[in-house]
Amino acid sequence: LEKVTGIESRFLANFSPGVDDARSRLQWASKRSTTRPEDIAYSLFGIFNLHLPILYGKSAENALGRLLAEITSQSGDISILDWIGEASSFHSCFPAHITSYQTLPSSPSLHAEEESSPMSQLPATSRALRRLHRLLADSALPQFINRRLILPCIVHRVIAVQPQGGDPSTPSYTYKIQASGLKPLEITLPDKLEEAAMEQGALQVVRPWHSKLLGLPGKLDAMAEEQLVFTLRRPFNALLLMRLPHNEYKRIASSTLVSVQLVDSPSVLQTKLQTLTIV
Questions:
Q1: Among 184, 187, 208, 207, which residue's Cα sits nearest to residue 197?
Q2: Would the pLDDT of 124 be above 70?
Q3: Of 185, 198, 209, residue with least CA distance to 132
Q4: Between β-strands 185-189 and 203-208, what pairing exists: parallel, antiparallel or unpaired?
Q5: Cβ distance 65 to 44 under 8 Å?
Q6: Which of 213, 234, 238 is nearest to 133 (CA)?
Q7: How confident is the model at residue 231 (pLDDT cuts 50, 70, 90)?
Q8: Of 91, 152, 153, 164, which residue is the least packed, with the fewest Cβ within 10 Å?
Q9: Distance CA 144, CA 73 (A)
Q10: Whether the predicted pLDDT of 115 surpasses 60
Q11: Degrees (nearest 5) of the Cα angle 107, 95, 36?
């Protein structure tokens, strides 16, 4: 069964319906095909233990969007935001097709010289780290309300965007991006950035946040402080957002995962957590 389904035997032997580890469950279903397009999402209601009205004739994209919105509403799981491909018309943070979940995301690791003594670059900042820990630990859960994703994020404002030369035969666009507190990064998009996106302050590189990412005890000691810095310094998969009117944002879909990293350990102390409304 493991070979046929691509599902690890431990899950097959001890399966429990629910929204836990939603990203893995979506990956299990990412190669499925169904007779009725909408059933690509509706057939997963049992796996996630969800109950929603079944609406045929509304497109598979809409059905998948409704499923992902319900998973977010019930669990606050941000792992379902890790995908590449075409964005859904249902919501910019969801993919148009479940095939976007075929590959489980993985974050690149730190270089050896960066792994050692992340605290060595920091001044005596125990008080600042305690404040930062409280801020991150007490963050609200992500919510999906009225077709809007209310998402806590660590925000890095884009300072400069520079188009890069690409292969004319490939329908993609590569940009070099500089964002506050981050090492320069390159991002490949399936569509050309709008002119409005090139304006100063129009783009943000964000790290979706959930307090469980801390993995730390409630009280910080010296070892936990170092672990906090190490956690925040590790490369992570980010989202590229574009500012819209009325203080809302939309996600810009990318052709590859947007893997980014802080410039250095002191940048950890500049961490800014905001709750953004994404449509």
A1: 187
A2: no
A3: 209
A4: unpaired
A5: no
A6: 213
A7: confident
A8: 164
A9: 5
A10: no
A11: 130
